[in-house]
Design brief:
The protein is α+β, with helices and mostly antiparallel strands. It has 2 domains: about 220 residues, 2-Layer Sandwich (Thymidylate Synthase, Chain A); about 50 residues, no CATH class. The longest helix has 20 residues. The protein is globular, with a radius of gyration of 19 Å.
């Protein structure tokens, strides 16, 4: 994962100080690209521990077409909690609950979760029902029937619904590519990228999606290409990034999928096994909401 550290250093050296929507402040650079050969190992960051369980459950949540955090909360995945909580604090139902108390209500009260846990038509909705189109099912069918097409696209950016989303999609467009030697590659375009917190998750998530699709469609592994618009390091993450830059990347882990799974929509958490992951300790940082 040297590519990640190279990008972080590049942004520190060449980025511009820029204010942002969250009023946290960033060092920002526009336009960057990384490439990972998936045959060389699973690209999970080793210069800090990444919570792989959250990566898996979030991706399964997208694939299900779900947009309510209850599924994530029930599996102790906390990465989306702040956005519905922020909206809840502005509602008439708010009773000065802390974030932890809000999450407990989401977990234990189905009616409360239905009312206050939904994020609007975010990723899962667009993947599975973009104005009536199941993009993900179509993608799988087209990869199987017309693998060399240049139209293997998955879009999360829906202008008609973006204003109704708790957070407009950061990773907006995905394209898959099948080579003549039967290797599946994936390119992600991300309009906005939090380098410290978000990017390590996104690398792992779209690499995992590529592994899963390759298996169910009968392809070998190609590359994951990660293209950025505004890639930024928040001002309150500078110490964390600099700590990682002192660490030498370790060997990549191995990902194993249950070979009996033949449909993308049948994968469960137990079908996805990460082996030989030996990262440095985790580094905490606040999410900018």
């Amino acid at each position: 994962m040297k590519q990640y550290l190279t990008m972080a250093q590049f942004i520190l050296d060449n980025g511009l100080v820029k204010q942002d929507r969250t009023n946290t402040g960033t060092i920002s650079y526009f336009g960057y690209q990384m490439r990972f050969n998936l045959a060389e190992g699973f690209p999970l960051l080793t210069t800090k521990k990444v919570h792989f369980k959250s990566v898996v459950y979030e991706l399964l949540w997208f694939i299900k077409g779900d947009t309510n955090i209850k599924y994530l909360v029930n599996h102790n995945v906390r990465i989306w909690n702040e956005w519905p909580y922020e909206k809840y604090t502005k509602s008439s139902d708010y009773q000065n609950e802390t974030l932890a108390e809000f999450v407990e209500k989401i977990e234990t009260n189905d009616e409360f979760a239905q009312k206050h846990g939904d994020l609007g038509p975010v990723y899962g909705k667009q993947w599975r029902n973009f104005e009536g189109v199941d993009q993900l099912a179509n993608l799988i069918d087209n990869l199987k029937t017309n693998p060399y097409s240049r139209r293997h696209i998955l879009s999360a950016w829906n202008p008609k619904e973006v204003d109704n989303m708790a957070l407009p999609p950061c990773h907006t467009l995905v394209q898959f590519y099948v080579s003549q030697d039967n290797k599946l590659s994936c390119q992600l375009y991300q309009r906005s990228a939090d380098v410290f917190l978000g990017v390590p998750f996104n690398i792992a998530s779209y690499a995992l999606l590529t592994y899963m699709i390759a298996q169910v469609c009968g392809f070998e592994l190609g590359d994951f290409v990660y293209s950025f618009g505004d890639c930024h390091i928040y001002q309150n993450h500078l110490a964390q990034i600099n700590e990682q830059l002192t660490r030498t990347p370790r060997a990549l882990p191995t990902l194993k999928l249950n070979a009996d799974v033949k449909s993308l929509f049948d994968f469960t958490y137990e079908d996805i096994v990460l082996e030989n992951y030996d990262p440095y300790p985790a580094i905490k940082g606040l999410v900018a909401v």
